[in-house]
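Please decode residue identities from the backbone states below.
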């Protein structure tokens, strides 16, 4: 019969175990925390005895967790951090928004809007230290240590909750110097156009609406970029046409640097602010999510509550 762990766990012993696992050994954990090495070893041994399993392989030059130890560390390290943070929040008063907030956002959003939003947030919450990185790669909140991420059209993820704060149509744009091909006669292949594409995206056709007319083009990839900012620059220089969110090219369309060949018949760009799905949400995370969404909420364009695949944040 398998052994069931008594639910009255020793959080202190569990905390000592996670310190040893985090620092990579008893000696390193002792030097980093000031806890005697003997105390760390004894408390970890007590935890192993209470569980009836070995968590750490002794005798090797470097620390090696057993499979059970690795699983316990992965499942409890974040929880203990939340408990400690909750204690700090209670001690400071739950209404106080404070601490370091790590945020990851796409490049275009960082360059076009985040400076203004971050400055306003800092004025409103002076006890929060914003730590922002900008890139378009996928980041894992837990592994990369972020509190909040902003993403465009993110894939559904049950480990995250979030709010959609901005929706924008997608348009097909080109430089005025690039000739626009005529539509083919009925039954003939759609005209081929040089296309600037997003990495990993190779569509077979684009269908857009220009006024009341529906137009179809066959994109012929000439270059691929990981960020829409580079796509926009290449299109400005006449390298080809591209499907981009209207918000990214609004100024270019107004100034005539780009022209619009049509608006996508289906689909739109959705900007989401996301954080970890957990029952206790840090006041600083809630404050940032609400401030960001409020920055885009107007009587003409209310902030959408949530779309399929994500749960509403707190």
């Amino acid at each position: 019969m398998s052994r069931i762990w008594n639910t009255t766990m020793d959080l202190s012993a569990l905390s000592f175990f996670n310190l040893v696992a985090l620092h990579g050994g008893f000696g390193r954990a002792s030097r980093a925390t000031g806890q005697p090495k003997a105390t760390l070893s004894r408390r970890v041994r007590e935890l192993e005895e209470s569980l009836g399993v070995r968590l750490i392989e002794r005798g090797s030059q470097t620390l090696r967790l057993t499979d059970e130890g690795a699983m316990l560390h992965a499942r409890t390290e974040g929880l203990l951090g939340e408990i400690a943070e909750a204690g700090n929040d209670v001690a400071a008063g739950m209404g106080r928004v404070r601490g370091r907030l790590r945020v990851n956002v796409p490049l275009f959003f960082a360059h076009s809007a985040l400076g203004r939003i971050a400055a306003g947030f800092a004025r409103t919450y002076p006890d929060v230290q914003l730590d922002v990185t900008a890139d378009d790669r996928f980041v894992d909140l837990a592994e990369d240590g972020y509190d909040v991420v902003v993403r465009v059209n993110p894939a559904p993820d049950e480990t995250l909750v979030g709010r959609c704060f901005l929706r924008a149509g997608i348009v097909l744009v080109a430089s005025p110097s690039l000739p626009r091909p005529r539509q083919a006669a009925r039954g003939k292949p759609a005209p081929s156009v040089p296309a600037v594409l997003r990495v990993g995206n190779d569509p077979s056709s684009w269908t857009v609406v220009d006024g009341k007319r529906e137009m179809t083009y066959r994109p012929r990839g000439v270059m691929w970029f990981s960020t829409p900012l580079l796509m926009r620059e290449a299109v400005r220089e006449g390298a080809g046409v591209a499907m981009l969110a209207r918000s990214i090219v609004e100024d270019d369309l107004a100034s005539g640097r780009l022209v619009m060949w049509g608006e996508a018949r289906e689909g739109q760009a959705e900007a989401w602010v996301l954080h970890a799905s957990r029952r206790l949400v840090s006041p600083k995370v809630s404050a940032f999510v609400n401030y960001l969404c409020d920055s885009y909420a107007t009587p003409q364009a209310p902030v959408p509550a949530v779309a399929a695949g994500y749960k509403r944040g707190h």
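Observation: Residues 297 and 303 are 5 Å apart (CA to CA).
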